[in-house]
Design brief:
Blueprint lengths: L2 H12 L15 E7 L7 H13 L8 E7 L7 H10 L4 E5 L1 H10 L5 E5 L20 E3 L4 H15 L5 E7 L5 H12 L3 E7 L5 H10 L4 E4 L3 H5 L1 H10 L4 E3 L2 H5 L4 E5 L1 H16 L15 E6 H6 L6 H4 L4 E3 L1
Parallel strand pairs: 1-2, 1-3, 3-4, 4-5, 6-7, 6-8, 8-9, 9-10, 11-12
Antiparallel strand pairs: 10-11
Amino acid sequence: MDRRVFVAGTLGVLAAPLTGRAQPSGKAPARVGYIGNSYPSTVAPSVEAFRQGLRDLGWIEGQSLVIEYRWAEGNPDRLPALAAELVRLKVDIIALSGTLALRAAQQATSSIPIVIGVLLIDPVDLGFVGSLARPGGNITGLASQYEEIVTKQVQLLAEAVPGLSRLAILRHANMPGGTSRAAAMAADTLGLKSRVLEVSEVATYEGAFRTARDDRAQAMLVLPSPFFNTHRRALIALAASYRLPAFYEFKDYVQEGGLMAYGPNLADMWRRAASYVDRILKGAKPGDLPIERPTKFELVFNLKTAKALGLTIPPAVLARADEVIE
């Protein structure tokens, strides 16, 4: 069976009953290309939020709308080919997340609109757009102020781990370095000694944890990366094995056994991305649509993991949580 047919069928099972207006008779359905950095199973809630957002705006998948899904399966080297394939299909819009997917799509087309569902770094700083208020070109969507968020993550981690003095910062080699610099500066401001550990393939993850142990790190901050997210179970297992309290970007990690996370709500970002697709399909130019910031953030703790680590999180910190898993 063709893998893409299987994937489309799998995603179809996740969908709620489709409602909304039908495409006028005789008019071809709109075609949206979707580039996923990981595997369908690891991003199902985000994909469903995007699809639900489109349904809420009246787009009926399979009737007025067709989504062409392409998956990098945790391999960033596949992204340029996936973007080029969607361009050859002449999709009306490409929806994606992450710096590397955005770069691949930008290099593949300067005419097809590109909608960012999730970007955890400033697209202006990276040269993708001219400004947030008026991006210009063919790119728009949602982007997080993550270099500000990471400062808060370091502060929360220092509060959650009493006596913290040495911090390991885990960075994926394919991600821009601005976030790791912001994390190191935040640690320095709090009087923490920190070291940035860079990894690439999954096989290199354990070496970083060994280095953190040898450095006597008392906690680890895992910086944002779609490829970390794809292989988050490996990171969670290593943190447990090395008994290292770890802080992650999204609550998905905590739901699967990670200790704590603070970051934007991914499902909400993807639902809002659907409104960009809607407006562009109705004639808006992407360069005229301001890039939005996320508005919903989540602080989540897993007390089962804390207990396994022998860690007691102060009640004042837990009181600020949006969700506590017990």
